[in-house]
Structure formats: C-alpha cells, structure tokens
Specification:
Chain lengths: 74, 74, 74, 74, 74, 74, 74, 74, 74, 74
C-alpha cells in the first residue's frame, strides 16, 4: 500500500466545490482546502503506483482543477 | 477568536476599488493597499476557521480580485 | 478538530530518523518521507490552533529538523 | 498616521520568544506567529516613515530575528 | 518629502513609448528603461504617501504598462 | 519494476568524482553529469519504492553530495 | 554518442497521451510520466548535438506539449 | 565598443526560425539556440548603449520572440 | 553620461550605516534604504560603463554589503 | 565545434580577478563581467562536449569562483 499526496491548484472561488467532487472519488482517503502554496491536498492509498495514472486522470476531469503535483511516500 | 490575514492580488489599476469593496465585508477588521509582493492585506477576526470558507468566497466575488493567500495566526 | 499539515525540511541523510522521532509525538496522526519539494509531511489533528504552538516547538527540537511550514485545513 | 507591516523571519524554534519580545516594543500595535512564507507579522502605526528606521533597528536587535521585510500602506 | 521608486513591467516592444508617457506625469523626477528584472524605473518625490494612490492610477493607465511594484525610501 | 530518477546537487568541482562513486552503487542503471539546474541525474530501477530508502541513504553518504530530489515514474 | 534528457511540461490531463506519442519518435530511448516539477522526462541518445534540433521540433509538434527543457550529459 | 548579451525567450517550436531572423540583424555578432533557462542568446557589439534601444525594438519585432533580457559587459 | 542603479543587499541591521558610507563615494548621486526585495538603491552617473568596475569594487569594500546587482539605463 | 556558455557566480568583490584568470584558460574565446543574474559569462569553443569536463574543473579551481552553470548551443 503506497501513500500518495496529490496537491491541487484550483480556479479562484472553486476550492470547496472541487473538494466536494474529489472526496467522492474511489481511493481518496481524505481531501482538504488548505492555507499555503497549494489550494487543496488529497490523501490517496493505492495498491501500487500503477493505479495512480487513472486516479490523476479522474482528478484532472474535475471542474475547477487547474493543475496537480504528486508526492509519493518513500 | 482567530486572527487571519488574507493577502490579495488584484488586477492592475483596481487596487483601491477592491479596497473599498472589501472593507464593507463583515468580519474584516482592516484592509490596506500595500507595497511589496501582494497588492492588499485584509485583517480578519473570526470565531473559528470554519467561518473562513464563506469569507473567502465573498472576497473572491469582489471585482478585480485575482487570487488570495491565507495566513492564520498560531 | 482542526487538521493541520506540517511540512518539514531535514538535514541530508536524516530523513528516516526524523520520521521515527516525529511519529512518537502526541497529536501526530501520520508522518511520511516524501518525494517533492519538502522532505517529510506530518498530519496533525488538534482540538484548536492553540495547541499548535507546543507541537511545533517539539518538532523543532527533533534532531535533523531544519525548518517547518504549517498548512491549516479551512 | 502610516500603517506599516513588518514581516519577520526567525531562527527555527524561536518564533514565540521573538513574538514576546516584539510585542513590548513601542509603536507595535500587534504581532503574530503566522502560517505561510514568513514566521511573524508585526503591525506598526507610525506618525511618519521617518520613525521606521529606529523601529527596524530595535526589531533587528531582538534575539532570533534573521531578516525583515517592510510593507507600507499606500 | 518621500522618495519612492516605481518599478514597471511593460508589454514587449513598448518600453520606450511607456517611458515617453511617464516622464510627462507630474511628480515624476526621472524615468529610465533599464537592464535587469524590471523594464523601467520611475523616481518619484511626493509630499506624503497619500499622493501615491493617484500617481499609481495614472501610471496604470499608460498604454503598455502591465504591472508596477512600489519601493518607499525609509 | 519502478523507474526512479534521483537528481543530485554536488559541491562545486566534485561532480565527476560523485559520478564515479554513484555508478558503482547497486540498483543504479546510469548516472550523468548534466547541464541544467541539477548537477547529476541517476537512473534507478527498483522492485518497489521500499528499496528507495536504503539507496538514498547510500547516495547521501557519497562525498560531495549536497542534496537529492527524487522523481518516481507513474 | 551524447545522452540528452528532454524535460517536458504538458497540458493538464494529457500526460499519458503525450507519453504514447513521444515513445514512437526515433532516437527516444525511454520516456516516463514523473512526479516532480516536470510532467515527463524523455531519454535521448544522439550521434551529435546537431540532431537535437530536428528531434525537439518533432517533440514540440506533439499535441499537449507546452514547453521543453534540454539537459545534455557532459 | 560595448559587448551586450540579449537573452531571448521564444514561442515553443519557433526557436530556430527566430535564430535565422536574428542573425541577419545588423550589430548581431552571433546568435545561438541554447540549453538552459533561456531559448536563445544573441551577442551584440555596439559603439554605445544608445544604439541598444533600436536593436531591441528590431528583435521584439521578430516573429516568435516573447521577451528579452539584456546583460551589459562592465 | 550613463545612469546606473546599484541594488544592494546588506547584513541585517547595517542598512543605515551602509547608506552613510556609500553616500560619500564619488559618482554616487543618491542612495536610499528602501522597502522591497533589496535593502538599498544607489543612483550613479558615470561618463561610461568603464568607470563602473572601480565604483563596484569600492561599494563591495563597504562593511555590511553582502551583494550587489547592477542595472544600466538604456 | 560546439559553442558553450559557462555562466559563473563569484565571491563578492572578486569578479574582475576571476575574469583575468579565466581569460588565460585554453579554449576560452571570451569572458566578461556582466550585469544580470550571473557575475560572469565565458564563451567556449570545444571540438566536442567531452572536453567540457576538464575545462569546468579548471574554472572551478579559479579563486573566487562559487558555482557555474553550462549552456550548450544546439
């Protein structure tokens, strides 16, 4: 089980809507609107890094998502 | 009572109009156009961080506001 | 209950030792060595932002910790 | 009366001590340890920008203060 | 008398036109197209920081001006 | 099999020595001194991200290595 | 034979399509979607830096590619 | 005779066309597409910095040129 | 006559002393401690860029000066 | 023949001494102290990128050289 953090930048004013949409996605453990250089952080538990591709594609399809950055626990 | 600073970037030439609009918002203690890397700083006193969501949504609706950053006093 | 993320930069080569020390601290839900611009991320659940002061002081005392950044869920 | 914000970076682990020392300085309206790219923000009200020189010299003498940035309300 | 520096970024190819327009503005002591991270620097002498608001609004109305940064002598 | 890139910054003048030491480490597929913002890039093939911890500790022990950044293929 | 790394930034959501297109280009040894500040890294082996011009033009024609950075092994 | 370096950023995919256009401009000693943070570097020899104004205006008119930075030898 | 701006970073707490020393240097038209990303700005009028070398060497010898950046009017 | 640019950062106050030392090195076509984000630029013509290794080692041995960045013409 690999813990992954997806840091999300969203269009101004859409942050809490993005949060509502992302917390319904399978594999998402938790998602918060946060202070600091990113707008949201999503916590992901995946059986392997292979499943990350599909999850990121779903996140990019959420309305308001501008870009993502992925951090993998080592 | 949590003190929060909202740093605001505004469209070129709209800074003092943004200031006029933001100082009318409930919960705003003070707001200034400032020198430095941001265009305005708004001082906020809120009973808890829960109220921040609504306040930020109102600020994002002000014409001329491009983006915000939130700093929370610890 | 406020979720807080503490992003940590550590001295080169000390990352997993810092992790071992931090995961024993009370209030820490989870801590990972991560890829990306920071070295570790610690997840914190606190009754209020008041408790953050003491927690950050304990983290700063961990050997190898160079600096921290705090993100608060809104 | 000119409102000035002094943004302060402090040595790791000294932030709340720096806060205690700075809030005693004359002319300081308020000072907070904050999340975000700086460690503390001090609010200053001064009759003119001339008095800023002396205030900044006093702040630089506080133990733990590494550097300051000054924003002046316009 | 407060000396202020207004650093200006201009649209590619408009720098010398912006210079011609800005040097006619009242309160501008000098203005140059410069090498380095900004495109122009304007030197301003003002009786107080209050007059800065109107001057910046005039500069923002000059065709080709994209953004400004203000530095105040202390 | 997960492909990982370890980007390395080295002390001025030690880059080719660091290269010689790192190319002997087990798990390293290739390592180059490169133009650009980093000094060296090491290509790693590992059965899982678990083995990364030990490999990074060995790289940090190489004389001249100042810091590393890890990118994992997704 | 000169080893070159081409770092690629792609439009949000196109990363794996860009990968499929680039791995068919002649001269590309390997290409991965990666965590970190870039979206993809392509490994190139070329007889000389002269051939780089044509290869970069082909990469820029791939749909979704926004910008590239080139690092040459020394 | 003052040696000046003009660093040029160009639209993706236009770098070698920009090079062809710029090497025909009078006063340009040499121009290369380069690896690193800029896209092209042009070497200029001018009798004085006065002639720089006209040369930069010509460069900004070249199709594909997005922005320039000027470094003057001291 | 070429107008040159020398932007100066100084050791914390030495800014006004640096100012006193620099305003005595021949060729310096004006020097201010400023808000913003630098600590001081010095205005220089020189017959040609050749004289800049000696002036910068004198400025670097002033106690408290950490680094300088030079902008030349075009 | 590959044209290479070596951008050099030098210790404060050593820039013209570094220039004198570097212009004597074989393979250096030209070297200037420059305005802008680097301190010096050295122009190099080399039969191949293989010779770059030795040249960079010689440059790093020059007193006052802090770090270098290498740009290769494509």
């Amino acid at each position: 089980m690999t813990r992954t953090y997806v840091l999300i930048r969203a269009k101004a004013g859409t942050m809490w809507n993005v949060r509502s949409d992302i917390e319904k996605i399978e594999g998402i453990v938790d998602v918060h609107v946060i202070t600091g250089p990113y707008d949201l952080v999503a916590l992901v538990n995946l059986p392997s890094t292979d499943n990350l591709k599909r999850l990121l594609e779903i996140i990019h399809d959420v309305e308001g998502v501008v870009s993502t950055e992925t951090w993998i626990a080592m």
